[in-house]
Write a structure and sequence with these properties.
alpha+beta
Amino acid sequence: DVSVVDLTVDLDRPAKYEDICAAMKKASQEGSLAGVLDYTEEKVVSTDFRGCSTPSVFDAGAGIQLDDTFVKVVSWYDNEYGYTCNMLRLVRHVAG
């Protein structure tokens, strides 16, 4: 089953949605979130994420900026397969 997080946030400081997207894209490519967070700019639907091994896929096209400090961000995940992959990541980390 594929699920979605639709998160609306009131930020402490003004930020542009494009800057948030750029930060998410960078985080998905390097650092501690690489391999955990994925990023897409494609037009997608829930079935596109079936079998997705990353715990979260940031959907840049689905979010929106409502004003300078109020944004909505969207992230998809495969609730079953993604969870299984997370457990395997944890086992590898603990065994590490």
